[in-house]
Amino acid sequence: MNEVLPQLDELLFSSVEGVSVESVEVTDTVVRVEARTTAERAACPGCGYWSVRIHGSYLRFPRDLPTAGKFVVVSLRVRRFVCGEDSCPRKTFAEQVPGLTRRFGRRTERLRSALVSVGLALAGRAGARMTDAFKVPVSRNTLLRLIASLPDPVAAAPRVVGVDEYAQRKGRIYGTVLVDVETRRPIDLLPDREADTLAAWLAERPGIEIVCRDRAPFFADGATRGAPQAIQVADRWHLWHNLGEAAEKCVYRHRGCLRPVPAPDEPQEEEPATLSPWPTGHRFAERTRVKHATIHALLAAGHSKRSVARQLGMTLNTILRFSRATTPEEMFTGQWQSRATKLDAYKPYLDQRWQEGCTNAWKLWEEIKEQGYPRGYGSVRDYVSRSLRGKPQPVGPRPPSARAVTRWILTHPDALPEGDRLQLKAVLTNCPELTALAQHVCSFGHMLTNLQGDQLPKWIEAATATTDLPSLRHFAQHLERDLDAVIAGLSLPWNSGVVEGHVNRIKMLKRQMFGRAGFSLLRKRVLLAP
User: Fold this and answer.
1) Taking residues 111-132, what's their average pLDDT?
2) Which end of the chain is flanked by fewer CB atoms within 10 Å, N or C?
3) How many other CB atoms sit within 10 Å of the CB of residue 187?
4) In the chain, count of helices (H) and strands (E)?
5) What region does 348 belong to: left with phi over 0, alpha with psi -120 to 50, or beta?
6) Helices (H), 227-343
7) What is the per-residue pLDDT across 469-515, written as a single tens digit (0 to 9) for each?
């Protein structure tokens, strides 16, 4: 045994100094290790005085990492020392073994580190299930408490900072994430996205030279006030995304040009309209026909009109009206026939859009609502189902959607498939406005990919002069409000791509914690998780 003990010291406590293993007891489920401290002196945690006077000793039983699937408990004998400093309020203190124990700790430091790693990677419930597999079961709340007790990491002063928002509760509560773009590591999380909060954070770090952000006004204001010496860089992805939204609105405005011009065909004879306003099988029509036949049959049999009214339970005026009508169709007038509705003024537009290929009743309702239609969706749905569903649509291929044409315009010509390229060419041939739009998008993409931000004022001037593309003109006018940052974004190699990646990571961490992701706990995981 004397030969084995040094090997156990090397195996169990290789990174810990001042511990000696005395014995190891192995049972079916537990490995119990008896050890003692061997340090000659200890420092008082209150005053730092090194003491060699031993007051007494006692046993501690911290749990250690499992071995061979069995629980490991260390029976560690530690000593209490007498503090020799008269001004120190402590008279005695217990020694701690660096790397093995801490005050009031019930686990060894390496087991605590392992649990913290599991908690940072998997959070509460999933982490608790993983600790069961490791044979060190703890509750989900224990893992969360271990994460919350960790100190904040010490980050170096950043030079290039990326700023973006993240949703703590989508649509209601938002925060701000700050990332060191050079090291690609998150620096801090702020509880809101207010300009004052961001300005105060930036003011505490005067070494910041570049701030990468989107074009949100609160980030622009906060960066201007908090870091006036820094260059603000607008993110290129957001610029391209905003240009795509403006281009899609322009394409939708000229959606009539998306359908190819049909070849002139021979005029077709229109089908004669049915004489009856109600088709056969309509419940009101069938009921009226039955009543008309019954009343005329009784009158032909010699019954008086008053007698017929008593037999059928109708009023005399109703019998008179039916007796005067020679056919049931003469009775097909009233509250269900030829009533003027507020949809009548929009029916020609709905018929035209139906012929253009738009068969979505909700989309049609949204279009006429923008034109001033005051009613709800139900009347449009009924008109489409009763009147338009039976109408034939033009023969030929379905025109491309506005979103598809926008995607073709935004795609590099070398990356566009041959079929899409031919369709785009046909669309641009029919519409000179969309041709101009494609040219503006192409020139902006050339600036963006080649980092030629000095050409942006000339592009804005050309885009603002377009009268047939109002959405593109508004996009160019909005760029003038943040011109310096946009020019820097189109000239410098920095961007906010790494920040967007961390925003997605924050979403994953929030979902892992199932509603327990308060700001403090979320901040710990974002800053400390690998």
Assistant:
1) 86
2) C
3) 19
4) 21, 13
5) alpha
6) 236-253, 283-300, 305-312, 316-324
7) 999 999 999 999 889 999 999 999 998 888 988 888 888 888 777 66
Q: Is 421 exposed, middle or buried (0-12, 13-18, 19+ CB in 10 A)?
A: middle
Q: What are phi and psi of 9, to 5 degrees?
A: -55, -45
Residue for token pair 């989900």:
140
DSSP class per residue in 437-502? HHHHHHHHHHHHHHT-GGGHHHHHHHHHT-SS-HHHHHHHHHHHHTHHHHHHHTTSS--SHHHHHH
Check: CB of residue 503 under 8 Å from CB of residue 510: no
Position 275 confidence tier, pLDDT thresholds 50, 70, 90: very low
User: What is the rounded average pLDDT of the residues 417-438?
Assistant: 90
Angstrom distance (rounded) from CA 208 to CA 159? 4
In 3D space, the residue among 367, 167, 339 whose CA is nearest the CA of residue 253 turns out to be 367
Q: How far apart are CA 431 and CA 254, in angstroms?
A: 8
Looking at beta carbons, which pairs linking 282-287 to residues 24 or more positions away fall under 8 Å? Answer: 284/336, 285/328, 285/332
Question: Tens digits of per-residue pLDDT, 394-411?
Answer: 555 677 888 999 999 999
Q: 408, 441, 444: which is closest to 424 by C-alpha?
A: 408
Could you tell me which residues come within 8 angstroms of residue 55 by beta carbon, excluding any fewer than 6 positions away? Answer: 79, 80, 81, 82, 92
Number of Cβ atoms within 10 Å of the Cβ of 465: 10
Lowest mean pLDDT among 33-42, 63-72, 230-239: 63-72
Token duo for residue 462: 């050309």
Alpha-carbon 472 to chain mean position:
26
Q: For residues 338 and 299, which has the higher predicted lDDT (pLDDT)? A: 299
Strands of 259-413, DSSP E: none
pLDDT tens for each residue of 344-375: 888 888 888 887 777 888 888 988 998 889 98
Pick from 316, 337, 317, 323: nearest CA to 291: 323
Which amino acid would we find at residue 528?
L
